[in-house]
Amino acid sequence: MMESMKTVVVLQSNYIPWKGYFDLIRDADLFIFYDDLQFTKNDWRNRNKIKTPKGFEWLTIPVGTNSHRLICEVEIKDFSWQTKHWRTIQQHYVKLPYFANYRDFFEDVYLGQQWRNLSLLNQSLIRTISSDFLNLKTEFRDSRDYSLSGQKLDRLLELVTKASAERYISGPAAKDYIEPSRFAAAGIDLVWKNYSGYPEYPQRFPPFEHGVSILDLLFNVGPDASWYIWGWRDGGSEPA
């Protein structure tokens, strides 16, 4: 990455997202949570997967069925999920080598407070995991900090332009609607994120799976987590 170019990433907040999400954060000088968009049911906003002896288990936050909400408007009214999620996480991860390193933080998240807004919960978790556990220095902002007027791609371009982006990195799923020529015309270098090549880490409950919550990586390898996300790509030595 050229240090002289301001790199921006714009993405909806997800619940305890997978390692690729944090790889994108690491690529950015500025990461903007894009939560004033339509909430989509059965998506990553309010659920994610962990590994268990029987395969995947979904951790889902109950948020109701109203489809006419922005992500930032999603209220959480039933708090019983917090205790259930923490019990499930403990059940499957308590014996892992680095669970104790993060126990106090996550126990407070799930048992020490009541979360009433989905976006607030997701953003809080992502910010802390990024800065405190992965040592990232990326600046975080929220799209609501900017005065936006357009729709869809026009709105995204308006956002990255107001954020003074010189480079914009996007996940590959956005290829369905992003028009590279529009970014070129705006003088913004568009880069597609490549999630391939991640090395496997010591993971309980084989077979190995990449697409699980960052919790799995943290509890299995602890402070070596960053190597398995981007350190391998930078030529750093593999953890012993």
Strand order across the largest sheet: 5-2-1-6-7
Class computed from helices, strands and strand pairing: alpha/beta
Task: Please estimate the helix content.
Answer: 25-40%
Shape: globular
Largest sheet: 5 strands, parallel
Q: Number of helical runs?
A: 8
Distance between the termini: 28 Å
| Secondary-structure element series | EHEEEHHHEHEHEHH
Low-pLDDT segments, ≥5 res: none
In what range is the share of β-strand residues? 5-15%
Radius of gyration: 18 Å
Mean pLDDT: 95
Number of domains: 1
Number of strands: 7
Plain-language structure description:
- This protein is α/β, with parallel strands linked by helices.
- It has one domain.
- The protein has eight helices and seven strands, in the order E-H-E-E-E-H-H-H-E-H-E-H-E-H-H.
- It has helices at residues 19-27, 80-93, 99-111, 118-133, 152-162, 180-185, 214-221, 225-231; strands at residues 7-11, 30-33, 47-52, 55-60, 139-142, 167-170, 189-192.
- Strands 5-2-1-6-7 form a five-stranded parallel β-sheet.
- Helix 6 links the parallel strand 6 and strand 7.
Quick description:
The protein has helices spanning 19-27, 80-93, 99-111, 118-133, 152-162, 180-185, 214-221, 225-231; strands spanning 7-11, 30-33, 47-52, 55-60, 139-142, 167-170, 189-192.
